[in-house]
Amino acid sequence: MNWGEFFAMKGYGFYVWGSYGVTLLIFIMEALLVRHKRKVTLQQLRLLRDAEKEE
Amino acid sequence: MAINWFKYSAPSTFYALTGKLAPWFAWSSAILFAVGLYIGFFVAPTDAQQSEAYRIIFIHVPASIMSMFVYLVMAGYAALGLIFNTRLSSMMASALAPTGALFAFISLWTGALWGKPMWGTWWVWDARLTSELILLFLYLGFIALHASIDDPRRADRASALLAIIGSVNVPIIYFSVKWWNTLHQGATIKFTGTSMHAAMQQAMFIVLLACWFYAIAVALTRVRSIILERECNNQWVQELPEVRL
């Protein structure tokens, strides 16, 4: 079996890779969003603390 | 060894525990995905009827199972929060909702891409497909309702009610292929076992486990941010090394 044949999936390549591609994209996007959310939350907590210190 | 589970119902201890657990679940999930998809694409044979198109099953079925399972777990946490007034349970429900919604979307998306070559259509208003679409809307409704109420405790209670009532939909999805004469094929995994080829079964179960670990890793990471947000006035949050920086 060569790779060209593998990716063609006997003519169903669009459907098979369209399924797995979008799923992978969703997983990566969600993981990045969750990490970003943690960063932003920690930043906000530090800002809040600094604001309280100044008062 | 006795584990004091109640200890982990306190947000501070749960926060510390999940910080240690989440990376393990994330890495295990990545390894399981690699193994499951390797078996699914290189070991499992070509299907006699559906040729290579059937390989969509290795993500379609796990994502569909996860969309229903995560919903029940979310509704369970929401109910615990409603009945026992435990903050952490409600936070877990909120943390699970987006992941569940994404699994429901993946289920519909991969289903459409499978339906087109096999049934000749991306979508039909069939009982299975429609009830899965309703599941996606229930997740989105839960998220929107929670976001629309300013007081987090009130938001928890209102969205918990929605989650609990909506859980009626889950058995409807599961049994839809039995109760109605649908275009969608019957259950792949029945309580009485399955008729699939061994390698196909292995691939599907390993990817299911991978999805499960993925959901745990993402939900735990998300709940940690929610805990920090909602407990920000507590001493223990302000004393965390990552906050004190």
Question: Could you please describe the fold and organization of this structure?
Answer:
The complex is a heterodimer of chains A (55) and B (245). Chain A is mainly alpha-helical and 55 residues long. Chain A contains 2 helices and no strands. The relative contact order of chain A is 0.07. The model of chain A has no long low-confidence stretch (mean pLDDT 92). Chain B is mainly α. Chain B has one domain. Chain B is globular. Chains A and B meet through helix 2 of A and helix 1, helix 2, helix 3 and helix 7 of B.
Descriptive tags:
heterodimer, A: about 55 residues, 2 helices, B: about 240 residues, mainly alpha, globular
What's the number of structural domains of chain A? 1
CA-based gyration radius of chain A = 22 Å
Largest sheet descriptor of chain A: none
Please tell me the overall pLDDT of chain A: 92
Q: Given the structure, what is the number of helices of chain A?
A: 2
Number of strand segments of chain B: 0
| Multimer state | heterodimer
Largest interface: A-B, 28 and 37 residues
Q: What's the end-to-end separation of chain A, in Å?
A: 70 Å
- Strand residues, percent of chain A: under 5%
Q: Percent of residues of chain B in beta strands?
A: under 5%
The value of Rg of chain B in angstroms is 20 Å
Structural class of chain B: mainly alpha
Q: What is this structure's SSE topology?
A:
The complex is a heterodimer of chains A (55) and B (245).
Chain A: H1 3-8, H2 13-54
Chain B: H1 11-43, H2 57-84, H3 87-119, H4 127-148, H5 152-166, H6 169-179, H7 198-230, H8 235-238, H9 241-244
Quick recap:
The complex is a heterodimer of chains A (55) and B (245). With 55 residues, chain A is mainly alpha-helical.
